[in-house]
Amino acid sequence: MRKGWVEETEEQEQEKQRAATPSSALPSFKPSFVLGGEAGLNMARLAKSSVMQSAMQASKVRREVSVAERNHMRAMQQHAYTHWVDYHLAKIQYFIEDMSKDMCDGVLLINLLQVLTGESIGICSDKPEMTIFEKMENVNKAMNWLRSKGMNMRGYGPEDILDGNVNVISAIIWSIISVSSVHPFDAQNTTETKAKQLLLQWCQQQVQGYPSVRIDNLDLSWQDGLGFCALLHKYRPDMIDYNAALNQGDDRIDYVMALLAENFGVTPILLPADLKKKDFKPDERSVFAFLTVLREVLTCALID
Protein backbone atom coordinates (compact mmCIF):
# COMPACT_ATOMS: atom_id res chain seq x y z
CA MET A 1 0.00 0.00 0.00
CA ARG A 2 2.84 2.42 0.83
CA LYS A 3 4.56 1.99 -2.52
CA GLY A 4 1.36 2.59 -4.41
CA TRP A 5 0.77 5.73 -2.33
CA VAL A 6 4.26 7.12 -3.09
CA GLU A 7 3.89 6.52 -6.82
CA GLU A 8 0.53 8.24 -6.78
CA THR A 9 2.01 11.22 -4.91
CA GLU A 10 4.92 11.57 -7.36
CA GLU A 11 2.53 11.58 -10.30
CA GLN A 12 0.46 14.26 -8.60
CA GLU A 13 3.61 16.34 -8.05
CA GLN A 14 4.59 16.03 -11.73
CA GLU A 15 1.11 17.12 -12.72
CA LYS A 16 1.43 20.26 -10.56
CA GLN A 17 4.76 21.11 -12.21
CA ARG A 18 3.29 20.76 -15.70
CA ALA A 19 0.37 22.97 -14.73
CA ALA A 20 2.77 25.68 -13.56
CA THR A 21 4.79 25.64 -16.80
CA PRO A 22 3.60 28.09 -19.53
CA SER A 23 2.04 26.36 -22.51
CA SER A 24 4.51 28.07 -24.87
CA ALA A 25 7.38 26.37 -23.09
CA LEU A 26 5.95 22.92 -23.71
CA PRO A 27 7.24 21.05 -26.80
CA SER A 28 4.72 20.54 -29.61
CA PHE A 29 4.06 16.83 -30.07
CA LYS A 30 1.25 14.40 -30.34
CA PRO A 31 1.18 12.15 -27.31
CA SER A 32 2.63 8.77 -28.08
CA PHE A 33 -0.27 7.01 -26.40
CA VAL A 34 -2.63 8.46 -29.04
CA LEU A 35 -0.48 7.15 -31.87
CA GLY A 36 -0.17 3.93 -30.06
CA GLY A 37 -3.93 3.77 -29.67
CA GLU A 38 -4.57 4.28 -33.40
CA ALA A 39 -1.87 1.80 -34.38
CA GLY A 40 -3.18 -0.68 -31.85
CA LEU A 41 -6.69 -0.28 -33.17
CA ASN A 42 -5.51 -0.88 -36.73
CA MET A 43 -3.49 -3.87 -35.63
CA ALA A 44 -6.52 -5.23 -33.79
CA ARG A 45 -8.61 -4.79 -36.93
CA LEU A 46 -6.00 -6.57 -39.03
CA ALA A 47 -5.69 -9.36 -36.48
CA LYS A 48 -9.45 -9.76 -36.31
CA SER A 49 -9.67 -9.82 -40.10
CA SER A 50 -6.89 -12.39 -40.26
CA VAL A 51 -8.59 -14.56 -37.63
CA MET A 52 -11.92 -14.32 -39.46
CA GLN A 53 -10.28 -15.25 -42.77
CA SER A 54 -8.54 -18.22 -41.12
CA ALA A 55 -11.80 -19.30 -39.51
CA MET A 56 -13.65 -18.99 -42.81
CA GLN A 57 -10.96 -20.98 -44.60
CA ALA A 58 -11.01 -23.67 -41.91
CA SER A 59 -14.79 -23.80 -42.10
CA LYS A 60 -14.60 -24.16 -45.89
CA VAL A 61 -12.10 -27.01 -45.55
CA ARG A 62 -14.33 -28.72 -42.98
CA ARG A 63 -17.33 -28.37 -45.27
CA GLU A 64 -15.39 -29.80 -48.20
CA VAL A 65 -14.17 -32.72 -46.07
CA SER A 66 -17.69 -33.24 -44.73
CA VAL A 67 -19.16 -33.30 -48.24
CA ALA A 68 -16.43 -35.65 -49.48
CA GLU A 69 -16.90 -37.94 -46.47
CA ARG A 70 -20.67 -37.94 -46.93
CA ASN A 71 -20.29 -38.79 -50.61
CA HIS A 72 -17.87 -41.58 -49.70
CA MET A 73 -20.33 -42.93 -47.12
CA ARG A 74 -23.25 -42.88 -49.57
CA ALA A 75 -21.22 -44.59 -52.28
CA MET A 76 -20.16 -47.32 -49.83
CA GLN A 77 -23.74 -47.80 -48.66
CA GLN A 78 -25.25 -48.00 -52.12
CA HIS A 79 -22.65 -50.56 -53.17
CA ALA A 80 -22.95 -52.59 -49.94
CA TYR A 81 -26.74 -52.61 -49.87
CA THR A 82 -26.99 -53.64 -53.52
CA HIS A 83 -24.64 -56.59 -53.02
CA TRP A 84 -26.24 -57.54 -49.70
CA VAL A 85 -29.60 -57.78 -51.45
CA ASP A 86 -28.01 -59.65 -54.35
CA TYR A 87 -26.45 -62.18 -51.97
CA HIS A 88 -29.84 -63.06 -50.48
CA LEU A 89 -31.78 -63.00 -53.76
CA ALA A 90 -29.24 -65.35 -55.36
CA LYS A 91 -30.59 -68.06 -53.04
CA ILE A 92 -33.74 -68.15 -55.19
CA GLN A 93 -32.02 -67.35 -58.49
CA TYR A 94 -32.91 -63.68 -58.55
CA PHE A 95 -30.31 -60.97 -59.08
CA ILE A 96 -30.00 -57.23 -58.76
CA GLU A 97 -27.63 -54.73 -60.31
CA ASP A 98 -29.16 -51.31 -59.64
CA MET A 99 -31.49 -50.70 -56.71
CA SER A 100 -33.01 -47.58 -58.24
CA LYS A 101 -34.15 -49.55 -61.29
CA ASP A 102 -34.50 -53.18 -60.24
CA MET A 103 -36.55 -52.61 -57.07
CA CYS A 104 -39.15 -50.24 -58.52
CA ASP A 105 -41.82 -52.84 -59.42
CA GLY A 106 -41.86 -54.38 -55.94
CA VAL A 107 -41.12 -57.92 -57.15
CA LEU A 108 -37.56 -58.14 -55.83
CA LEU A 109 -38.51 -56.38 -52.60
CA ILE A 110 -41.22 -58.95 -51.84
CA ASN A 111 -38.91 -61.84 -52.78
CA LEU A 112 -36.20 -60.44 -50.54
CA LEU A 113 -38.55 -60.27 -47.57
CA GLN A 114 -39.75 -63.82 -48.20
CA VAL A 115 -36.16 -65.12 -48.35
CA LEU A 116 -35.21 -63.35 -45.13
CA THR A 117 -38.24 -64.39 -43.10
CA GLY A 118 -39.53 -67.58 -44.70
CA GLU A 119 -42.99 -66.05 -44.73
CA SER A 120 -45.23 -65.99 -47.78
CA ILE A 121 -46.20 -62.45 -48.66
CA GLY A 122 -47.46 -63.08 -52.16
CA ILE A 123 -46.71 -61.15 -55.33
CA CYS A 124 -49.64 -59.52 -57.07
CA SER A 125 -47.96 -59.53 -60.46
CA ASP A 126 -44.65 -60.78 -61.81
CA LYS A 127 -45.06 -60.27 -65.54
CA PRO A 128 -42.20 -59.05 -67.74
CA GLU A 129 -44.32 -56.02 -68.59
CA MET A 130 -46.44 -54.60 -65.77
CA THR A 131 -48.71 -51.62 -65.64
CA ILE A 132 -48.06 -48.85 -63.16
CA PHE A 133 -51.03 -50.06 -61.13
CA GLU A 134 -49.64 -53.60 -60.88
CA LYS A 135 -46.27 -52.25 -59.77
CA MET A 136 -47.99 -50.01 -57.24
CA GLU A 137 -49.91 -52.99 -55.88
CA ASN A 138 -46.69 -54.97 -55.37
CA VAL A 139 -44.93 -52.10 -53.67
CA ASN A 140 -47.90 -51.37 -51.42
CA LYS A 141 -48.05 -55.03 -50.42
CA ALA A 142 -44.37 -55.01 -49.41
CA MET A 143 -44.68 -51.74 -47.50
CA ASN A 144 -47.83 -52.83 -45.69
CA TRP A 145 -46.12 -56.07 -44.68
CA LEU A 146 -43.18 -54.09 -43.27
CA ARG A 147 -45.58 -51.88 -41.33
CA SER A 148 -47.26 -54.99 -39.91
CA LYS A 149 -43.84 -55.98 -38.53
CA GLY A 150 -43.49 -52.67 -36.76
CA MET A 151 -41.25 -50.88 -39.23
CA ASN A 152 -41.63 -47.12 -39.32
CA MET A 153 -42.47 -46.20 -42.92
CA ARG A 154 -43.49 -42.64 -42.13
CA GLY A 155 -42.42 -40.28 -44.88
CA TYR A 156 -42.03 -43.06 -47.43
CA GLY A 157 -44.60 -43.67 -50.12
CA PRO A 158 -44.92 -46.30 -52.85
CA GLU A 159 -44.27 -43.59 -55.41
CA ASP A 160 -40.74 -43.18 -54.00
CA ILE A 161 -39.91 -46.78 -54.88
CA LEU A 162 -41.75 -46.63 -58.21
CA ASP A 163 -39.77 -43.51 -59.13
CA GLY A 164 -36.48 -45.16 -58.17
CA ASN A 165 -35.70 -42.73 -55.35
CA VAL A 166 -32.37 -44.23 -54.32
CA ASN A 167 -32.27 -42.41 -50.98
CA VAL A 168 -35.64 -43.78 -49.89
CA ILE A 169 -34.87 -47.26 -51.24
CA SER A 170 -31.51 -47.25 -49.43
CA ALA A 171 -33.18 -46.18 -46.18
CA ILE A 172 -35.74 -48.99 -46.43
CA ILE A 173 -33.07 -51.57 -47.31
CA TRP A 174 -30.94 -50.44 -44.35
CA SER A 175 -33.93 -50.91 -42.02
CA ILE A 176 -34.43 -54.40 -43.45
CA ILE A 177 -30.71 -55.21 -43.00
CA SER A 178 -30.65 -54.14 -39.35
CA VAL A 179 -33.95 -55.75 -38.38
CA SER A 180 -33.24 -59.03 -40.18
CA SER A 181 -29.97 -59.39 -38.26
CA VAL A 182 -32.03 -60.33 -35.20
CA HIS A 183 -34.44 -63.27 -35.29
CA PRO A 184 -37.36 -63.28 -35.59
CA PHE A 185 -37.93 -60.35 -37.95
CA ASP A 186 -39.51 -57.83 -35.58
CA ALA A 187 -38.95 -54.15 -36.19
CA GLN A 188 -41.07 -53.27 -33.16
CA ASN A 189 -38.50 -54.73 -30.76
CA THR A 190 -35.31 -54.42 -32.82
CA THR A 191 -33.80 -50.96 -32.81
CA GLU A 192 -30.75 -50.06 -34.85
CA THR A 193 -28.75 -49.65 -31.64
CA LYS A 194 -29.77 -53.09 -30.39
CA ALA A 195 -28.92 -54.73 -33.72
CA LYS A 196 -25.48 -53.12 -33.77
CA GLN A 197 -24.74 -54.03 -30.18
CA LEU A 198 -25.69 -57.68 -30.67
CA LEU A 199 -23.58 -58.04 -33.82
CA LEU A 200 -20.63 -56.25 -32.22
CA GLN A 201 -20.83 -58.53 -29.17
CA TRP A 202 -20.87 -61.60 -31.37
CA CYS A 203 -17.76 -60.40 -33.24
CA GLN A 204 -15.94 -59.61 -30.00
CA GLN A 205 -16.68 -63.07 -28.61
CA GLN A 206 -15.41 -64.80 -31.75
CA VAL A 207 -12.08 -62.95 -32.00
CA GLN A 208 -11.28 -63.05 -28.30
CA GLY A 209 -7.69 -64.15 -27.77
CA TYR A 210 -6.49 -63.36 -31.29
CA PRO A 211 -3.33 -61.21 -31.18
CA SER A 212 -3.46 -57.66 -32.56
CA VAL A 213 -7.25 -57.75 -32.92
CA ARG A 214 -9.38 -55.35 -30.96
CA ILE A 215 -12.99 -54.90 -32.01
CA ASP A 216 -14.51 -51.80 -30.40
CA ASN A 217 -16.80 -50.61 -33.17
CA LEU A 218 -18.17 -51.31 -36.62
CA ASP A 219 -15.90 -48.98 -38.59
CA LEU A 220 -12.25 -48.32 -37.70
CA SER A 221 -11.76 -51.66 -35.94
CA TRP A 222 -12.12 -53.39 -39.32
CA GLN A 223 -9.91 -51.12 -41.38
CA ASP A 224 -6.80 -53.29 -41.23
CA GLY A 225 -8.67 -56.50 -42.14
CA LEU A 226 -7.37 -58.49 -39.15
CA GLY A 227 -10.85 -58.79 -37.67
CA PHE A 228 -12.11 -60.51 -40.82
CA CYS A 229 -9.09 -62.82 -40.84
CA ALA A 230 -9.68 -63.75 -37.19
CA LEU A 231 -13.36 -64.53 -37.83
CA LEU A 232 -12.51 -66.71 -40.82
CA HIS A 233 -9.76 -68.51 -38.90
CA LYS A 234 -12.09 -69.08 -35.94
CA TYR A 235 -14.47 -71.12 -38.11
CA ARG A 236 -12.15 -72.35 -40.86
CA PRO A 237 -8.57 -72.54 -39.55
CA ASP A 238 -7.73 -74.76 -42.54
CA MET A 239 -8.54 -71.93 -44.91
CA ILE A 240 -6.33 -69.14 -43.61
CA ASP A 241 -3.00 -68.88 -41.79
CA TYR A 242 -3.66 -66.20 -39.21
CA ASN A 243 -0.01 -65.77 -38.24
CA ALA A 244 0.87 -65.16 -41.89
CA ALA A 245 -2.00 -62.68 -42.16
CA LEU A 246 -0.47 -60.63 -39.36
CA ASN A 247 2.44 -59.75 -41.62
CA GLN A 248 0.51 -59.09 -44.82
CA GLY A 249 -0.30 -55.43 -44.24
CA ASP A 250 -3.02 -53.94 -46.45
CA ASP A 251 -2.84 -56.97 -48.75
CA ARG A 252 -4.61 -59.07 -46.12
CA ILE A 253 -7.90 -57.29 -46.89
CA ASP A 254 -7.77 -58.32 -50.55
CA TYR A 255 -6.68 -61.80 -49.51
CA VAL A 256 -9.47 -62.49 -47.02
CA MET A 257 -12.14 -61.01 -49.32
CA ALA A 258 -10.93 -63.24 -52.16
CA LEU A 259 -11.09 -66.29 -49.87
CA LEU A 260 -14.66 -65.48 -48.85
CA ALA A 261 -15.77 -64.96 -52.44
CA GLU A 262 -14.09 -68.12 -53.67
CA ASN A 263 -15.14 -70.49 -50.87
CA PHE A 264 -18.48 -69.10 -49.74
CA GLY A 265 -19.74 -67.16 -52.75
CA VAL A 266 -19.88 -63.94 -50.74
CA THR A 267 -20.43 -61.07 -53.13
CA PRO A 268 -18.13 -58.05 -52.73
CA ILE A 269 -20.33 -56.21 -50.24
CA LEU A 270 -17.26 -54.32 -49.06
CA LEU A 271 -14.57 -53.18 -51.45
CA PRO A 272 -11.01 -53.50 -50.12
CA ALA A 273 -10.22 -50.06 -51.57
CA ASP A 274 -12.92 -48.48 -49.40
CA LEU A 275 -11.54 -50.11 -46.28
CA LYS A 276 -7.99 -49.00 -47.08
CA LYS A 277 -8.80 -45.32 -47.44
CA LYS A 278 -7.03 -43.39 -44.71
CA ASP A 279 -8.87 -40.10 -45.23
CA PHE A 280 -12.24 -41.54 -44.24
CA LYS A 281 -13.25 -44.25 -41.84
CA PRO A 282 -15.24 -47.18 -43.22
CA ASP A 283 -18.99 -46.68 -43.28
CA GLU A 284 -20.49 -48.36 -40.20
CA ARG A 285 -23.69 -49.53 -41.88
CA SER A 286 -21.82 -51.02 -44.81
CA VAL A 287 -19.52 -52.96 -42.48
CA PHE A 288 -22.58 -54.10 -40.54
CA ALA A 289 -24.23 -55.41 -43.72
CA PHE A 290 -21.10 -57.37 -44.63
CA LEU A 291 -20.70 -58.83 -41.14
CA THR A 292 -24.28 -60.14 -41.12
CA VAL A 293 -23.50 -62.10 -44.28
CA LEU A 294 -20.13 -63.23 -42.94
CA ARG A 295 -21.76 -64.46 -39.73
CA GLU A 296 -24.33 -66.38 -41.75
CA VAL A 297 -21.88 -68.15 -44.05
CA LEU A 298 -19.44 -68.98 -41.23
CA THR A 299 -22.02 -70.35 -38.80
CA CYS A 300 -23.73 -72.32 -41.58
CA ALA A 301 -20.36 -73.75 -42.63
CA LEU A 302 -19.83 -74.87 -39.03
CA ILE A 303 -23.20 -76.63 -39.00
CA ASP A 304 -22.53 -78.29 -42.34
From TrEMBL:
<dbReference type="InterPro" id="IPR001715">
    <property type="entry name" value="CH_dom"/>
</dbReference>
<feature type="region of interest" description="Disordered">
    <location>
        <begin position="1"/>
        <end position="25"/>
    </location>
</feature>
<feature type="domain" description="Calponin-homology (CH)">
    <location>
        <begin position="75"/>
        <end position="181"/>
    </location>
</feature>
<dbReference type="Pfam" id="PF00307">
    <property type="entry name" value="CH"/>
</dbReference>
<feature type="domain" description="Calponin-homology (CH)">
    <location>
        <begin position="193"/>
        <end position="299"/>
    </location>
</feature>
<protein>
    <submittedName>
        <fullName>Calponin domain containing protein</fullName>
    </submittedName>
</protein>
<dbReference type="InterPro" id="IPR036872">
    <property type="entry name" value="CH_dom_sf"/>
</dbReference>
